[in-house]
Structure formats: structure tokens, C-alpha cells
Amino acid sequence: MEYRLDKPLQEFFQEFEAARADVTTAEGKMDGVRKLEEKGYCVSFENGGVNVMLKEEEEENTPKTSPPPGNNEEPSPSSITEVRQSSRARQLPKYLEDFGVDVMLALSAGTTDVLESYEEAIKDEEHDDRAPPPTRRVSFKPSGNRVVKQSRRDWELAIRSRLEDGDIDMNGAGFSGKSTGRYNPYISRGSKSHQQRGGRGRNSPLPNMRRTLQTGPNNWFRVIIPHGHKYSKEYILKTLQNYIAPQPFIPVAYQIQGTESFFFVDSFSTAEELMNADKKITTKDGFRLIVKVRPGYPHVEVDDKLKERIKLVMGKRYNAATKALDLTKFHMDEDLVQDVLVCLFKPNIMTTIVNIIAENIPELVGLNLTENKLYSLEPLTSLFKKAPNLTVLHIGKNRLRELRQLEYLQGLRLEDLVLDGNPLCDKFREQSTYVSEVRKRFPKVIKLDGINLPPPIGFDVLDNAKLPPSKGSFIVVPEGQFMARQFLEQYYQLYDSGNRQGLIDAYHDNAMFSMSCAYPPTQGSVAAHSRLINYISESRNLVRINDFTRRQKLLHVGKQNIISCLSQFPKTQHDPMSFQVDLVLFTPQLIMLCVTGLFREPEQKTPPIRSFMRTFVIVPVGSGFCIINEELFITCATTEQLESAFKTPLPAQTAPTAVSPPSQPQGGPVLDDATKQQMVEVLAQQTGMNLSWSKKCLDETNWDFQKAVFVFSELHKQGTVPPEAFIK
């Protein structure tokens, strides 16, 4: 027997691998040989050897022997047997399949009497999965060796490693020795004493074949029953259940396509038991039941009909009293499991579930997704919008491996969360670390995996808390309002005048001033007349200026330097009705005042309108106040500001109305304490002084109310009223 390696050998095994797909049994390999013949290859037996080649090469390599004259009969058996042209040879792989023989192993081992045995076998035209008679046996006889070139030998070794996929045990005693016959790429070429350690003899049986089941990504398996259309669903399922008992057996989505039937199981142990039942069950009509198991699950298209079925099942599982939806083992629901596989780990199914929740039960509070083989939570990304009241979520006993999967649930205000039973929980050795990582994502969780947690420490705003309405101005204490108004009136009257030298007394001797400017980020282009060219040179923008010396130069220290800098700026006209004042600090030692508003530069041909923000830090000096620090920011007005600038007229100057205090009659009796107290309160209301200084002012004017108001006005204009008079 010889094994000839011809040119298309590489193509042969590529086609062979493609045909066998993921089949790991000998039967699948023989299916591959039949597929090979359909693709134009020829398998032939010559003098006990086997030859594989393309049909074109077959014609080229066929010996050109001239038949005897007048004799058109086939050559005698002593010549090259044209087995490849006979129907019997083309059926040979089918014959070997009946015996469960790996055709490649049989051909490589060599057969001299395989055709004699085949002569008897082809007479039986029974179904191929009928139990074979126990007396049939195929023996293999080795023949002479043949020298094979090293390149071909390398190909054989490579192909051997490709075909050894775990379904055939080639390390047994039958393959541990060195063959005395032809070169065999499937055995070891090692020790010369291999036959002493045991070797497969001429008539020894084939080694035991062992098939392994590969696990799928979700442990779902498809079980195929060839010729299953001949039997009822109940008969096949009951027969398989009885064989693998007591192993749990829950078939899902039983279907028939063509001549085969199939269903799905979601247990590796069940799938393995079913695979081991292959050809071990004799049916009622005497045939062996073929059982093929593959990893996989069907693709389910969600149409309107299936969506209605899912909606009905969800309605059955919804508790309206607690607003909870229990979808535990949803794919095993009795209303779905018979003919359709609705797995929540499939994105299109989970997306349908979320949409049904949004359309029918948006008030959902609790959702249970336990035991649904979930490996990703990405389809739940929009759940916080479609079920905003969801606070209870159970996703235990799934296949979530990373804690980052919880980021898809961001936005949910979960209080009760179950993750136990997922691989991600095994990554935490300390319970405290596990709780901390979960609370980083869901800070309001108070129950985790059924265990109550201590209340979280947080500073988040309560759900029912309301922010106070915004105001244009903020005055930290009412007593500071009068002083702030007086200060701003006097300061901007002098600032908008032609000469700003009058502001020199408003600054402290050691005062500091800085100015910065920038264009609004929302303005793509600025008109020429609105450019900040008069302010850029003095802008102390620390983001743009990195030089320390220039930074120091643009920081003006001393009231003379400050007034000199302010005098360089264009003449201005401020809009008092645009002012927003924030008095954020008001104490006897320090006052902080922030002002924002609009101004324009009237001396330009087209007066531009600017927006400004000015911060004053004020300290008491003597009987008055001085600016110790000031920051000024200038930018171009926005479109909204331009629409409202200088549009509101100033209010008319009217004399303040006040309650007329009782006056002391001339030559009359002394006022009682109640009358004096009323006079003190009215004076404090009109002047802004506290009660103590108001009483002092009335005492010094002999309780003459009109005189006290006049004296206060004169002293206040002179700036001689001490600041503590306004502290309440």
C-alpha cells in the first residue's frame, strides 16, 4: 500500500477542512471527501495505494498503455485497476462510514483487502445509520515502504497537526510504534523498539475515537437529529430524556427543517450527555439515532407578532401593586420556550424589552433580570430615561465579568442592587472594597446583594430641594446697601467726568490695581470700532503673559500710578440701570464689592458699548473709606446686552418720603422715652446709621429731628461720618 502525495495536496486539505467545518467525528471527515469529489478531485486506488489529484492531472498522469488489438475490455487485475472510474470506488467512503472509520486514517494506513470486504458490504442497501452486524470487520495490511521527499514529508506533518483536533486519540498503544510498512504521517517516527512497546498489528482494530465538545460564548448548544423528520417531537425528546436521565433536560425551540430536526439546550453538561448518546440509541424501527451537538443559538428577528407575544408574557410577570417586573429566566417561560428562543442577552431582544417598558410601564420601580446569561448591559443604556423611577435592579447570576458594565446604568438612582453570582464579584477579596466600588457608581445604594448597608455619607442636594430664585444684585447685610449706593454714585460720577484726578483720594496710598481684557468667545469677528486696542497694552492676562517682569509692570501699585493708568483709558459714560451689585462682605474692617454693567465711549465716531466687571476691596481709613485693591475686566458687549443698553431711563429724583417724626414743642415738656425711641428709629431708617449713632446724633442736636437730619447730610458729604456708624 502506498500513499502518493500529488500537486493539489494542499488544495485537497483546504477543501477537506472547509467541508468538514466544525465536525470533529470520522463521519464528518468522510462528508468532506464526498464534497471533495463534487469539487473536481478524484480519489483512486492503484495497486494497494491511494492517489488524490485534479481531474486534469488525472488525465495527464494516466499511463498511456495501448490495449491489445481488437480487445476493448478493461485491463486485468494484474494491471493498474481503474477503481476511480467505478461506481464502487466512489461509494467507498460511504462504506467506510458504516464502520465508523476515519477515511483519512484508513487510506493512510493502507488496505489490501478493503475492496473484498466492500464487495460484500455494498450488497446491503439499508439506511446508513442502522446498527452494523457484529461480524463485519475491516482489516488493514501494510505493504512495502516508499521513499518520500522531504518537502512532501513536511506537508504531511503540517497536515497531521491540522487534522489532530482532539477527536481521535492517537497517543494510544496502537500508534506508539513504528510501522513496518509504508510511510505514515500520523504516527511517531522515533524509537526502533516501538513494536516492543506495543503497536497496531495487521488485523488489530482501530483505536478508540473520542469526541470533545467545545463551549460556546453563552453555553448554548444546538442539537441536530438527522432524519428526525421521520419521528414525532414527543418520541425523540422522550427517548433522549430517558437515555441521559437523571441529567436535567430542557429542550428549547424544537423545529424541523428538511429531513432533520433540531432544538437548543443551555447547559454544557446536558449537551455533553446528548453528544455521548450519538449512535447509541436504537430507534423503534431498528436504526441508530444520530445526535450532533454544536455550540450556537438561533438569530431571532423581532417582528410585530413576536413583540406582541413578548408583551403578553411581560404583562403576566408584572406586579402592578409593587410596580415590579420579574424577568427571571425569561427564555424559559412556558409561553415562549416551545417554539421560539427569546434570550435577553441578545441586544435586539433586550432593546425590545426596554422599549416595551417605556411604552407601557414607565412608572416601573423594580426590575429582575436574574439568570438570563447577560454578558453586557449596553442595551440598558437608555433605561434611566425610559424608567426614571427605577430604584431596584436585580442582575445576579449572569455573566458580567467587569464592573465597568455598570457604567451603562449611569443615571439610575438605584437603592437596591443585586450583582451576586456574576464573575465580577470574584475579583474582590474585601467586602468593603466591593461596596465602595459599587457606591462610586450608585451612591444611593442602601441594599447590596440582599444585605443592608450603612447610610452613605454624601453632600448631594435633596431631590425635593429647590434653589432660591436668582436676583440681579446681592447684599450680604441690609445695612451695607446705603453705603454701597453712595460709594458707587460718587465714584462713577468722578470716573465719567473729564478729569479722573478727583479719584486720587478714593485710593489707599498702598493700593494695587490691575486690568485685563478679552473678546467674547461667542463672537467670531469684531467690528473695527469695537476692538479693544485702547486696553490691550495694559491687559494683565496671566494666561497669555508668562514673563514675570511684564506681569509685575502691569500691576500698578500706589494711588498715583493707579490714577495715571486710569487716565489713559478713553472717556466713558456708564449706564447705571445696567449695574448689578454684589456686596459679598461687609464688616467694620473690610468691605468687598463687585459691580458689573455696561458703558460706552462717547468721544468715538461710532461709540462702542463695552461690558465690564469691577471688584473693589475697601478698608476704613480715618472717618471714611479707601480702595486697597481693585480688579477691572473689560470686554465687548454681547448681542443681548446691546439690545438693552441705555434703553431704560433713569428714575426721577424725588425726595424720599418718610414718616414725620414728632417734634419737641418749644417751651414744652421733655419728650418721654417712647417718643425718643420712635425718633431714633425714623432717623436710622432715613440715614442708614445704626440705632446707637442715630440716638447720639439726636442727643447732640437736642432732639431736634430736622436739625439732626441736616447735620448728618453735611457731615456725610464731607466724609466725616465714621464707618462704624453704619454697622448694625
From TrEMBL:
Sequence segments annotated as region (Disordered): 51-89, 123-149, 168-212, 652-671
GO biological process: poly(A)+ mRNA export from nucleus
GO cellular component: cytoplasm; nuclear envelope; nucleoplasm
CDD domains: NTF2, UBA_TAP-C
Compositional bias annotation for Basic residues: 191-200
SUPFAM superfamilies named among the record's database cross-references: L domain-like, NTF2-like, RNA-binding domain, RBD, UBA-like
Full protein name: Nuclear RNA export factor 1
Organism: Timema bartmani
